[in-house]
Amino acid sequence: MKIYRINMATLTVGAEEVPAEWQGLGGRALSSAIVAKEVEPLCHPLGPNNKLVLAPGLLSATTSANSGRLSVGAKSPLTGGIKESNAGGSAAQKLTRLGIKAVIIEGKPQGDAFYSIHIDSQGVTIAEEKDLLGKGNYEVIRSVSEKYGDKVGVLSIGQAGEYRMMAANISVKDPDGNIRSAGRGGMGAVMGSKRVKYISIDDSNTSGPEIADPEKFRAAAKAFAKALTEHPVTGQGLPQYGTDVLINILNEAGGLPTQNFRRGNFFGADKISGETMYDTIVARKGKPTHNCHAGCVIRCSQVYNDKDGNYITSGFEYETIWGFGAGCLIDDLDVIAQADRICDDIGLDSIEAAVTVGVAMEGGVLPFGDGQGMLNLLAEVKKGSYLGRILGNGAAFTGKALGVTRVPVVKGQGIPAYDPRVVKGQGLTYATSPMGADHTAGYAVTANILKVGGYVDPHGKQGQAELSRNLQIATAAVDSTGLCLFVAFAVLDIPAAFDAIVDMINAHYGLSLTGDDVSELGKAVLRTERAFNQAAGFTNKDDRLPEFFKEECPPHNTTWDFTDEEIDEVYNF
Amino acid sequence: MKIYRINMATLTVGAEEVPAEWQGLGGRALSSAIVAKEVEPLCHPLGPNNKLVLAPGLLSATTSANSGRLSVGAKSPLTGGIKESNAGGSAAQKLTRLGIKAVIIEGKPQGDAFYSIHIDSQGVTIAEEKDLLGKGNYEVIRSVSEKYGDKVGVLSIGQAGEYRMMAANISVKDPDGNIRSAGRGGMGAVMGSKRVKYISIDDSNTSGPEIADPEKFRAAAKAFAKALTEHPVTGQGLPQYGTDVLINILNEAGGLPTQNFRRGNFFGADKISGETMYDTIVARKGKPTHNCHAGCVIRCSQVYNDKDGNYITSGFEYETIWGFGAGCLIDDLDVIAQADRICDDIGLDSIEAAVTVGVAMEGGVLPFGDGQGMLNLLAEVKKGSYLGRILGNGAAFTGKALGVTRVPVVKGQGIPAYDPRVVKGQGLTYATSPMGADHTAGYAVTANILKVGGYVDPHGKQGQAELSRNLQIATAAVDSTGLCLFVAFAVLDIPAAFDAIVDMINAHYGLSLTGDDVSELGKAVLRTERAFNQAAGFTNKDDRLPEFFKEECPPHNTTWDFTDEEIDEVYNF
């Protein structure tokens, strides 16, 4: 395995051996270690001293189920802290098959030209790119696939990334040529600042990674897949309804943030629910279930068509539907699907975009509930108009531009989909994660709402700090394996699933790690990330929710009532 | 003396006795003490929990020369930290004559209405204001003066404050009905968030404050005025040429930041210099020297007319002329005067605006040197267009909107007029002041360039931390007296001037303070302010200049080369 270091100032590439300290790392553990070691914490995130890191996980390109995730790391333009943004698609598996442990993109070209980067078994080629400038991700993926063949992997930025907007994401081609996203924290802006329009990855003439103990690996992988298919969330709920199954659940729980976090239930929930989506997809001959990378057995993605049966979008997630839907008082799933498609195409984080539209509605740019107006706003982002430049920089930025005080963000990143006053464990994760408000960073919805991995009363404070802490540690470990975080549903309830992951890592690398070692890995990742953020100027004062969460949230009228000391308990490990 | 507390949520007013802990304070010491005690450091600066504080100084409305300054305090929307913004004009003297130690404006109305506040010897009246909404400060002052008479004092916001832009200032009427500004840090946005369009102050039927020892006061005031008129800076340079006398001096020193801080000298310096301005004013029958408040003997202001002899602006300062001039490569003093007038009228900090235009030029919104384009940008701010909302929020915000990395700010506030690589003591003040990049917070140009109060080599590091520290302490004390900071030129060179200030305070209040007590007051102010900022999440990581200052600054090719430890020495007291 090697590390490719691509210097965009000199347009040169070096292949490096993996230093000993990084050999046992992958995914988020590796991307965060590289950023922490090599990026000056006070550098400008869009300047020459930031670095963009791509890191497949420890189990990438193996036969393990759900092992296709890629970690993308950098100093975030959105939060000002360290960022790992995690995506499916085919890139991680292809990079690993090419023997690549990580790609580090550093420096910045002097001029205005953009470039493409092609990686294959011969090495890395940088070329000036002109034709695809100003184009959306769908066209980039189509064009690059025409050039290199349908199987080529693609990482690309849309217009938002070219504009270096703080909510710009990096799109990752999935096996069907559709789009997955390393969504949060502006990784697309960092890629745009390096002036890289796309990275194509051709893994022809490669084989999978060498496995130290293939038989042991096979047995563990089988046990792992079995657990995933047996658990009701990963075996039934997610495959049938996708993540949007959560609309009815959160609405019922009164924790579905509605009208820019004014209340926790939405009159139009049923019209945007996973159940409604399922029926709509089936009626329109879309795909209700679909995988974002080879080897996924959960298949929570889907293909959503319009009334005429034409493709609109895929990977149509609960958080996106929540945000453009309940958050903005829009109950038309077709309009929300169009918004999701536009976000994918222009390369804009759909969660940040949805929170931003809610703030723009709060600021009077358009009324709540105006679906066509929402689509028009996204068109402004695509154009790069001044309004678009405001919106494309996210919710915190838009709030400042409009003088709005009700702005749901932590560390500058928009709060997603679960009201912190109602799902309080989730609120602690939003407050304390080094990533900013990130629902995946420690998904306490499990024990608070889904009764997976035990039960902690969502309205109470008791047990929430421990819950968020343990989930953040476990998540940091899972994000380092290259496994999809959704495996956690099975892992939290089925001990054999966790054992299987440890066994797979041991069989892969000829190690004899224990469960405790994996937990220690998670802690080490979080410590590295927190240390970077502290060096960038963060303190526990950044681990706080906006003051408006002291207001009651109907219908349960709970408030955000943790003391500072209680919040700070989360990182007491 | 009393404190008026005006609650804009309930539209009620209370008169309170001055608590013992605040009785010996005035100006900045008082405004910062009130903000530190009463404002939650993590509140939203434009939300109901911020407070706007008006505080005349310890010597306000006495016969002391140059004692007309007002301190305006709040949590700053621009920096996120505590702010004291200091202005001339007649408000401070009138408030003191009305027996008012401070005005605290708190809360926030529910609806969209704006209000006016009238203060006179009968008390405080709040009324809804409709007619003047959307109007500029010149019209507000004219209209309010028509209503209450020419002598009425006025504090007002223009369109920028109504829009709650982070660079919005508060305008203070001067004795001629023209405009002085509490410029920096977005105090106008805070006033706008309280929905106060203007405050009128009528001090009819009042007398000056009671003086404990009138004879001693008279003698000290005389000695003080004598020192001011004898010192070459306050007695000759500033009265004749205004602060713009510094253009040629800084250009000569290579420290006049040119083209968004690319170099330290400007080809067009002569055309925008104080000497040129003087000749122009005289030729056009303006006023080359003019006072911003009653009792000023320095008279550094002026009235600048157009070619036809019509008034354009007054209080036309070096930093404004530098910013719109050298900073933007514009060498037309008439265009710069128009820009200054627009800023005064719409209530926009002219320093922040100038730095912002430089960043917009960097970002390709318009070319460097485009004077008419610059005036057009300011017109966008007045309109509140989306471009205007970007620009009106300042340089850091504009840099983010445009993806620009060369953004000269500290703590979010634009760096003024003196290149920190060339005038290094000034750089330390920019880096470490709790106010953000504020040239007045510790004006090391004195010893670095003007050889006032000794000499410290501007390019060297030796002695700069001590210089900046001592000046910041002295400034915090001067800002608490209500004296104009320019008295410091005399104070630094003439010991009798400093003694006279201490004598005046003692004679006024029947105290027996020493010089050390005054220094301790300055230290206490800075400690209070730093503590607030720390509670708001600031660390020493916020005491750093942007990374591009590591580049050389022609023509001297010096760099910003202080280590973190050396910077942190400034606040070692």
Greatest interface (CB-CB under 8 A), with counts per chain: A-B, 40 and 40 residues
CATH class of the largest domain in chain A equals: Alpha Beta
CATH architecture of the largest domain in chain A: 4-Layer Sandwich
- Identify the strand order in the major beta sheet of chain A: 2-1-6-3-4-5
**Subunit arrangement of the protein:** homodimer
Q: What's the alpha carbon Rg of chain A, rounded to whole Å? A: 22 Å
Largest sheet, strands/sense/barrel of chain A: 6 strands, mixed
What is the name of the CATH topology of the largest domain in chain A? Aldehyde Ferredoxin Oxidoreductase,  A, domain 1
Query: What is the domain total for the residues of chain A?
Result: 3
DSSP summary, beta strand count of chain A: 17
Structural class of chain A: alpha+beta
* Share of residues in helices of chain A: 40-55%
Shape of chain A: globular
How many H/I helical runs of chain A?
23
Mean pLDDT of chain A: 97
Bin the strand percentage of chain A. 5-15%
First-last Cα distance of chain A? 33 Å
The H-level CATH homologous superfamily of the largest domain in chain A, spelled out, is Aldehyde ferredoxin oxidoreductase, N-terminal domain
General description of the model:
Two copies of one chain form a homodimer. Chain A has 573 residues and is α+β, with helices and mostly antiparallel strands. Chain A has three domains: 200 residues, Aldehyde ferredoxin oxidoreductase, N-terminal domain (Aldehyde Ferredoxin Oxidoreductase,  A, domain 1), CATH 3.60.9.10; 181 residues, Aldehyde Ferredoxin Oxidoreductase Protein, subunit A, domain 3 (Orthogonal Bundle), CATH 1.10.599; 177 residues, Orthogonal Bundle (Aldehyde Ferredoxin Oxidoreductase Protein, subunit A, domain 2). Chain A is 41% helix and 15% strand. The radius of gyration of chain A is 22 Å and the shape is globular. The two termini of chain A are 33 Å apart. The interface between A and B is large, with 40 and 40 residues.
